[in-house]
From TrEMBL:
GO terms for cellular component: plasma membrane. It comes from the Bacteria. The chain crosses the membrane at residues 7-29, 49-71, 83-104, 110-130, 151-174, 186-205, 237-255, 275-296, 305-325, 406-431, 443-465, 477-499. This is MFS transporter. Keywords: Cell membrane, Membrane, Transmembrane, Transmembrane helix, Transport. PANTHER family: MAJOR FACILITATOR SUPERFAMILY TRANSPORTER (PTHR43045:SF7), SHIKIMATE TRANSPORTER (PTHR43045). It comes from Filimonas zeae. It is found in: Cell membrane.
Amino acid sequence: MKKSNQTLYSVIGASSLGTLIEWYDFYIFGSLSKTISDKFFPSANPTAAFLSTLATFAAGFIVRPFGALVFGRLGDLLGRKYTFLVTLVIMGGSTFCIGLIPGYETFKAAPIVILLLRLLQGLALGGEYGGAATYVAEHAPENRRGYFTSWIQTTATLGLFVSLAVILCCQTMLGKDAFNDWGWRIPFLLSIVLVGVSVVIRLKMHESPLFTQLKAEGKVSKNPLKESFGHKANLKMVLLALFGATMGQGVVWYTGQFYAQTFLLNTCAIDATQVNTWIGIALLLGTPFFVVFGALSDKIGRKTIMLAGMLIAIVSYRAIFSQFYSYADLSKKTEVTALLSYSKTETMGDAGERTVHSTTLHTYTDSSKYAETVTQTFTVKNGAEQAGIAKTAKSVTLSSSYAPKVVGLMFLLVLFVTMVYGPIAAFLVELFPTHIRYTSMSLPYHIGNGVFGGLVPFIGVLLYEYSKTPAAPQGDILAGLWYPIGVAALCFVIGLLYVSTRQPKHS
C-alpha cells in the first residue's frame, strides 16, 4: 500500500473533512433557497423570485467546469494538496460573506452580489472534488480504489445532511419567526469556523506519493490543458466519461437529493421542517451504501453498478414522485369542518407600517393540517394608509403516520444516488494518467454534475410552471422529471454501448 508519513485512513479523514465542509458550504444555499428568494429578490412575483434563486443556485454549478480547468491545471502543475487548500478558503470565504449581505429591501444590489459569491463557490468546488478524489486514489492500493475513494463520495451527501441538520437546529432553538428574520444567516456564518478547522488539518497533510514521484522524475505535465484535451485519445476518454457516465450520474444525484426536496417543499407544499427532517433521516440511512457500492465495484466493475443505478432510477422516478404528491393531495383527504380555525395577528414596524397575518387552518381525518397564511403590509403615505402586495404562504403538515412512507421513498432515491456515485471517483481516476489526471477527470465530472445535474431543480420547476394552462391550472406535477429521465436514458445507452467494462488502470 502506498502512503507517506500519514496512514491511508488519516489521508481519507483529512481529505473527506475538507470536502464535506465545501459541500456543506455549496449546498446550504440550495437548502435555504426559499428563504434566499424572500430575502434577496424582489417580492412582487414570488414564483419569479424563486426561479431567480434556483437560477442563481444553478449558476454555481455551471461555472464548476471552469473551476475544474483553472484548479485542475494548477493541481497537475503544482500539486494536489495546496490546490484544494486554496479552493477550501475561497469556498468558505464566499459562504461567510453571503451571511453578511443585507436584504433586497435595504440593498438593491443584493441579487448581483449573491450571484457573484455563488459563482466563486462554483469555481472553488470545481477545483476541490477532483483534487480530493485524486489525492485519495493516489494513496490507495489499485485493487481497493473503489472502496477507499467511496469515502470521498459520502461527503457530498453528508454535506447536504449537515446543512439540513444545522438549519433544523437553528429553527428549533430560535423559533421559525426569528430564524426567518435573521437566524437563517447563522448556517452561512458558521462556515468560517468549519473552514478554519479544516485548513489547519490540511496544512499538516503531505503531497500525494504518485505526484511526488512524478515531480522527482521531472515528468510533471508542462501543459495539462493541451495534453488533456488536445490529444485525440485522451479527449475521447474525456467525452466518454462525460456522456457515458457523469452526465447520467449527475441528474440522478440532483434529482434524488435536490429536486426531491424542491418537489416536496413547493409542488407538494409540505412543511419545511418535516421535509428536511425526513430527507435528513433518508440521507443518514443511505450514506453507508456509497461505501458498499464503491467496494462492490472493485469486485464486479464500476460500469455495471453505475448503469444499473441509472436504469432503476429511470423506470422508478414517476411512480415515486406520484406517491409523494398523493400524500399531500388535499383533494383526497376528508376535512373535519368542526375543527376549522381562523386567526389574525398584527405587528407594527419601526417606520409605522402595519403588517397583518391572517391564517386559516384546516384539519383532516388523517390528522394532517393545511395552513394558508396571507400577509399584507400597510404603510402610511400622505396621511393615507396604503396596502402592499398580499403574500400567500401555503403549508401542509402531514400526520406522523406518513413519516416512514416518505422516508422509505427518499431512501430509495438516495440508494439510486449511491449506485451511480459510489464508484464514479475510482472510475474517473482509472481513465487518465497521473500527470494530467486532476485536469482530465475534473472537467467531465463537473460538466456532468455541475451543468447537467445542477440544472435539474431549475429546469424541473420551469417545466412544471410551463405545464400550467388556464384549462389545467395545476399543471402536470411530473413534468419536471422528463429532463433527468431523458438525460439519464441517453447516458445509459451511450455508457452501455461505448464505455468499456474493463478500464485502463493508470498508476
